[in-house]
Design goal:
By secondary structure, this protein is α/β, with parallel strands linked by helices. Helix content is about 40%, strand content about 15%. It contains 15 helices and 13 strands. Helix 2 runs antiparallel to helix 11, helix 3 crosses helix 11 and helix 11 crosses helix 12. It is globular, with a radius of gyration of 21 Å. The model has no long low-confidence stretch (mean pLDDT about 100). The structure holds pyridoxal-5'-phosphate. The site of pyridoxal-5'-phosphate has 13 residues, from helix 4.
Length: about 400
């Protein structure tokens, strides 16, 4: 497997040459990543050259519409789904909210939904609110020590009442990667649809959603080097079954059915820059030509390889410390580089101490109130979270380890 050319990667992110950010290592990537240059270039071009109503007959408008279509087509191709199975909404939280309204209308009292207590609230609360309409909510619970979800437990919860199973590809505090393909096939075998929150996974390599099989897959482009958009895959069979949530005359267009808000034209157009970035990485590292899914998989593996190598020493450095509880597994190969630490003091205060060591990180609950509570973490103290991506350098990791040594 190729190794990532970190200098090439960092050259694609203007933040790394931005004077005001020099000397500060960014470790709050799970909150939102830096934006890659192709996205910024497309956004600037849109705002300067095409800031008109798209899909009209004049050149600026035609190009604006073409760029929006290009973003959906190219991102869908990487994700292994049809172009109209991908839509863009304001955020993942808003996308799940709209989807939950659709399920609210489609389901009958007595039907059931499985949610987890590992999810960020975005893929939990909107579904749980359907209890108000007589929908039974079943909670698939994590192991309170390890934070893991056991697929066997899910299997025991399923019956003919369950219409939907919601779970994360990976939690934004526990970090362990769930076996989406296996869980999806368990749910499908019981006749349930599947909704996966991929927000904490997708920044570490776009997955082949078509291959994994869930009916819904969500992620947030502002964490995958793109603009502030929520990306939502809804497979055709489910999308056509659920009631339309958009204007009645837009209901026959799959990618419009669950995004009632007017689209953010410029940001959707700029989302094609994420595909440009995948292409840049693929070509620079002599990846395969042709098929977008294969190229996406190559870049995914490139990113993962780099991240796992840099992550293991971080986990090793914190896992046996007194007064530190590492949340989730200490095996880098099984998790994303999103590392939450419960300390014996307030995590926000510790994050503030890290500033003088040139570390940008955060403390709190990260809207993962349910998983942290289930693991017995004191929410008043919260967790310190240090999260990185493929563009993080060895030097920055060293800086982090020295800083943690100083403050923990
Ligand atoms: C795992 C996870 N799911 C969902 C969300 C919500 O995404 P958005 O900010 O796009 O609503 C987040 C945001 O931090 C997250 O980490």
């Amino acid at each position: 497997m190729s190794t990532l050319d970190i200098n090439f990667v960092r050259d694609q992110f203007p933040a790394f040459s931005e004077p005001s950010l020099q000397g500060q290592a960014f470790f709050e990537n799970a909150g939102g990543s830096y934006t890659c240059k192709p996205v910024l270039d497309r956004l600037t071009r849109y705002y300067t050259q095409r800031k008109v109503q798209p899909y009209g007959p004049y050149d600026a408008s035609r190009l604006a519409g073409e760029e929006m279509d290009e973003a959906r087509a190219r991102m869908a191709a990487i994700l292994g789904v049809d172009t109209d199975e991908l839509s863009f909404g304001p955020s993942t939280t808003q996308n799940t909210y709209v989807l939950a309204q659709a399920f609210r209308q489609w389901m009958k009292p007595g039907d059931a939904i499985v949610v987890t207590n590992q999810d960020h609230e975005a893929n939990s609360g909107p579904w749980r609110r359907l209890a108000e309409d007589g929908i039974e909510i079943r909670e698939w619970q994590i192991d309170p020590e390890t934070g893991s979800l056991n697929p066997q437990d899910l299997e025991n919860m399923l019956d003919e009442k369950v219409r939907l199973v919601c779970f994360p590809h990976c939690s934004n505090v526990i970090g362990e990667i769930n076996p989406v393909t296996e869980i999806t096939s368990i749910a499908h075998a019981a006749g349930a649809f599947v909704c996966v929150d991929g927000v904490s996974y997708a920044p570490h390599g776009f997955p082949n959603v078509g291959h994994m099989g869930p009916d819904i897959y969500l992620f947030s482009a502002y964490k995958t080097y793109g603009p502030h958009q929520g990306c939502m895959v809804i497979r055709r069979a489910l999308g056509e079954l659920l009631p339309n949530q958009a204007h009645f005359f837009n209901g026959d267009v799959l990618y419009k059915r669950f995004t009632p808000a007017g689209p953010d034209h410029a940001q959707i157009a700029a989302s094609a820059g994420m595909a440009d970035y995948v292409d840049l990485l693929c070509d620079h590292h002599n990846g395969p030509e042709g098929d977008a899914t294969q190229r996406g998989a190559f870049v995914h593996d490139l990113m993962r390889g780099q991240e796992v190598a840099l992550l293991q020493p971080v986990l090793d450095a914190v896992k046996d410390r007194n007064a530190v509880r590492l949340i989730g597994t200490s095996d880098a190969a099984r998790r994303a580089p999103t590392v939450a630490l419960a300390l014996n003091r307030n995590a926000e205060a510790v994050a503030a101490e890290l500033v003088s060591h040139g570390i940008m990180a955060g403390g709190g609950d990260f809207y993962a109130v349910r998983p942290l509570t289930a693991m017995g973490v004191d929410l008043d103290q919260g967790v310190l979270r240090v999260s990185f991506t493929h563009y993080t350098s060895q030097q920055e990791i060293d800086q982090l380890l020295n800083a943690l040594d100083a403050v923990l």
